[in-house]
Amino acid sequence: MAAIKRVLATDIDGTLIGHGGEQAVRDYLLAHPELGVIYLTGRTLNNACSIITRYGFPTPLAIATDVGADIYWGPHFEVDEYWAFEQRRHWSPRRLRTALSEVSGVIYRGRSSHWRVAFELQDPSLLPVVKSYLTQHHLTVRMLWHPNESRLDILPCTALKSRALQYILRRIGIKAQNCFVAGDAENDGDMLVNHYPGVLVANGDASVRNCLPEWIVRSRYPGALGVLDGLQQWLEPQRQ
């Protein structure tokens, strides 16, 4: 087995999949076994593993699911119990649901995972009202708004891809400059604005693009081809 000296830390939806080029980036990663892979995704573990298997992507060193709320270690995907304990310290879904039951127009839609509580907002103008109620009830959480579905997902405040990635890199002994990050969406922004080299694929959110540091590649290619473009610029600069 090749010694891992560098890693690709990448989002899945909209980054590795969804815009074509999946086979090209898969083949590149498989041809470079010295490059470890870490997946950071909003998916649950089962959903993420089904995508990895479907496209034949490499088995990761680790995978952070639910936007960083859980970490599993490859190749057998054992949960990191210490990390899970850290999330539980900041998480009270019962108190959360009770607090928001007082807000007219906010409808509880269930839990799509252990760490994610979903609400429907009948009007987007309710977002600041929700924030105010949470503050009044001393609930510090992370909110992800999905305007196309009028859905608000609420997670532990510590569920951040950047925090999960920092923890994983520390555990495996990889320095930040040897980690290349790839993403497309707002929930990838905390990774992309840190001190890692990386790429925002062409289909990336404008809100993310506008706040990126100068060293992040703005690829002209969407999805997996954008990841491949960024990786080649990082690993094979003489090709440019």
TrEMBL record:
<feature type="domain" description="Sucrose phosphatase-like">
    <location>
        <begin position="5"/>
        <end position="234"/>
    </location>
</feature>
<protein>
    <recommendedName>
        <fullName>Sucrose phosphatase-like domain-containing protein</fullName>
    </recommendedName>
</protein>
<dbReference type="InterPro" id="IPR006380">
    <property type="entry name" value="SPP-like_dom"/>
</dbReference>
<dbReference type="InterPro" id="IPR023214">
    <property type="entry name" value="HAD_sf"/>
</dbReference>
<dbReference type="Pfam" id="PF05116">
    <property type="entry name" value="S6PP"/>
</dbReference>
<dbReference type="GO" id="GO:0016791">
    <property type="term" value="F:phosphatase activity"/>
</dbReference>
<dbReference type="GO" id="GO:0005829">
    <property type="term" value="C:cytosol"/>
</dbReference>
<dbReference type="InterPro" id="IPR036412">
    <property type="entry name" value="HAD-like_sf"/>
</dbReference>
<dbReference type="GO" id="GO:0000287">
    <property type="term" value="F:magnesium ion binding"/>
</dbReference>
